[in-house]
Design goal:
Elements: H1 22-26, H2 74-88, H3 90-99, H4 105-130, H5 136-169
Helix pairs in contact: 2-3, 2-4, 2-5, 3-4, 4-5
Length: about 180
């Protein structure tokens, strides 16, 4: 037989503080000062910290690709150029013409056509305001040039809608009533 013939029942662990002496229970509790945040902890609030997604169980970890600036779609530049030129006249047309110069013959042709038409619109607008100096004939010419200015504005809006479609198809776009200031 074994030396220990009386089996003792297992004892459950007691929660901390139950076997403390009575003197310790009567003493005032001591509070510890919170630890200063370490350099490893972020000082950003939790709602501003980036969320890191955990891969599903059994799946390899997902690696994020770094951001790479891709090639700019020239059709987007043509669209932006035309719409900005509709409302801000020749300034965006000149900027796009200078920035995108030499990036492709079709892109150059579109920016050149838009700049030429924008210059024509600006000349008609300036002529409308200065022609009022002439007494009677000036009023009639101002009305005619004002109507022409409105017509050119509408044509430019139609070009801003139609030109990107033709650009994507690889076809050139020609403005009606334009003068080639820049060749």
């Amino acid at each position: 037989m074994s030396e220990n013939s009386n089996p003792t029942p297992p004892v459950e662990p007691t929660p901390p503080g139950y076997d403390a002496p009575a003197a310790a229970a009567s003493a005032a509790p001591s509070y510890e000062q919170p630890a200063a945040p370490s350099y490893e902890q972020s000082t950003m609030p939790s709602y501003q910290q980036p969320v890191q997604q955990q891969p599903a169980y059994g799946q390899p970890p997902v690696q994020q690709q770094p951001y790479q600036a891709g090639a700019v779609d020239p059709a987007n530049n043509v669209t932006l150029n035309y719409w900005l030129s509709v409302f801000f006249s020749w300034i965006p047309a000149l900027i796009f013409f200078l920035v995108d110069k030499g990036k492709g013959s079709l892109v150059d042709e579109y920016h050149k056509a838009n700049l030429n038409f924008s210059i024509l619109r600006a000349i008609v607008g300036i002529a409308t305001s200065f022609i009022l100096v002439i007494p009677v004939l000036g009023i009639i010419l101002a009305i005619v040039l004002g109507l022409a200015s409105i017509a050119l504005f509408v044509i430019h809006i139609m070009a801003a809608i139609d030109a990107p479609k033709k650009f994507r198809a690889g076809q050139p776009y020609k403005f009606p009533f334009t003068i080639e200031f820049i060749k």
